Amino acid sequence: GAVVSQHPSWVICKSGTSVKIECRSLDFQATTMFWYRQFPKQSLMLMATSNEGSKATYEQGVEKDKFLINHASLTLSTLTVTSAHPEDSSFYICSARDYRTGRGGYTFGSGTRLTVV
Amino acid sequence: SQQGEEDPQALSIQEGENATMNCSYKTSINNLQWYRQNSGRGLVHLILIRSNEREKHSGRLRVTLDTSKKSSSLLITASRAADTASYFCATDRDNFGNEKLTFGTGTRLTIIP
């Protein structure tokens, strides 16, 4: 089945630094990937839609200059949290859809827990 | 923004009992999906039901969809301790018809051995 690999699974960084999170589709090509953020005991909130070869589409209220998304290939999207602050601490998850299967379900990465100290 | 609401927010039942979770949504859909999330992990796709379907089964899972009421339910039969997780419904379209997987608020299910 479709596999999405997300790395790292957790990261601790200092305030003001930047953190990059990678999301790879391992056995399928993903022209579109999605980035979510999840705070404890809450649901997933879509941050942005990552489009291969073009600019990402950000949801209302998400700062595009703070959350940089790059989707340079059909199998890799990256999310960079720039100048991280403690309020950016959260669980970040990516997903992609393998349109070959026709199942319609999305495959999710295992998530990245970011802690900003 | 959240697509919809799920209820209950939390559910605790004895092992072997059935668990029912409900989801309401707001937009038109092509399909509705249910996902499971173990604590601190990614999501696992459970089942998809298309807008022209009313009921679907997969193993111990049964999903219903009522598009007139914009609601869906997930039934887990003969629950097991390993079913303890959070369950989310998700719709595949936003208000403008764009592809966008939008999640409900989720139900935290606890199965008591």
What does this molecule look like?
The complex is a heterodimer of chains A (117) and B (113). Chain A is mainly β and 117 residues long. In chain A, 0% of the residues lie in helices and 52% in strands. Chain A contains no helices and 11 strands. Chain A has strands at 4-7, 10-13, 19-25, 32-38, 44-51, 57-58, 67-73, 76-81, 90-97, 106-108, 112-116. In chain A, strands 2, 4, 5, 6, 9, 10 and 11 form a 7-stranded mixed sheet that branches. A 4-stranded antiparallel sheet of chain A has the order 1-3-8-7, with no helix packed on it. In chain A, a hairpin with a 5-residue loop joins strand 5 (44-51) and strand 6. Chain A is globular and about 40 Å long. Chain B has 113 residues and is mainly β. In chain B, the strands form 2 sheets. In chain B, strands 2, 4, 5, 9, 10 and 11 form a 6-stranded mixed sheet that branches. A 5-stranded antiparallel sheet of chain B has the order 1-3-8-7-6, with no helix packed on it. Chain B contains no helices and 11 strands. The N and C termini of chain B lie far apart (36 Å). The A-B interface holds A 6, 32, 34, 41-46, 49, 60, 91, 93, 95, 103-111, 113 and B 1-2, 31, 33, 35, 40-45, 48, 50, 88, 92, 99-106, 108.
